[in-house]
Design a protein that fits this description.
Helix content: over 70%
Radius of gyration: 22 Å
Number of strands: 0
Order of helices and strands: HHHHHHH
Structural class: mainly alpha
Shape: globular
Length: 203
């Protein structure tokens, strides 16, 4: 067994965070896959499977280094996915998909960070494992970003509620109402500023 003392304290925390982030992505993307049609659903389901594979392998790595990633990190990841899923009720499809890109970006960046620490310790095995997974998530992140961007080709569909249920439609209507109110306030403020400039110029 690898001596746990060879790990930097930052790695202990980082590996726990990675477990939570992977579980969060798996839960959030699986939930979104059931809500978003077509290409986004296929990508999200593939990403959820990939994140579950990472979480499973990470548990094995953690055992080798005597690092405990369960149950605190597991619970944190599941709770995070649940909270993000609840927030999706208020989002449009394009917004939900763009938020999903951030999930992948988080995991990719964290894997890169951890691999740098492991390399500086001279841990070739862990460095290699983390870099291989970073490459997989970089690809996933790139695909997710491309999918999110492509939604702009069908803007009417892109602004449909991410949650198709009655609750989702209601939440989306609330969000749209808030957005409309904000636009009205902005227009009113700009109008006052323009009138102020005209008055100032006239004087």
């Amino acid at each position: 067994m690898t001596d746990a003392q060879t790990l930097h304290p930052a790695e202990h925390r980082g590996l726990r965070e990675l477990q939570a982030a992977a579980r969060h992505l798996a839960g959030h993307w699986r939930r979104l896959a059931s809500r978003l049609p077509g290409e986004p659903a296929e990508l999200l389901e593939r990403g959820a499977v990939t994140a579950r594979e990472l979480a499973a392998e990470l548990r094995g790595q953690a055992v080798a280094y005597d690092v405990e990633v369960f149950p605190a990190a597991q619970l944190l990841g599941a709770r995070g996915a649940g909270l993000r899923g609840a927030g999706d009720v208020l989002l449009e499809r394009n917004q939900a998909m763009r938020a999903a890109v951030l999930d992948a970006q988080h995991v990719t960046t964290l894997l890169g960070y951890l691999s740098e620490i492991a390399e500086r310790r001279g841990d070739v095995a862990l460095t290699t494992w983390e870099r291989e997974w970073r490459e997989r998530f970089e690809t996933l992140e790139t695909d997710a970003r491309a999918t999110a961007t492509s939604l702009g080709a069908s803007p009417d569909a892109a602004i449909e509620p991410a949650e198709p249920s009655a609750l989702g439609r209601a939440g989306h209507a609330v969000a749209m109402g808030v957005g409309t109110l904000g636009e009205a306030i902005d227009r009113s403020a700009l109008g006052r500023m323009a009138r102020g400039r005209r008055v100032s110029g006239a004087g």
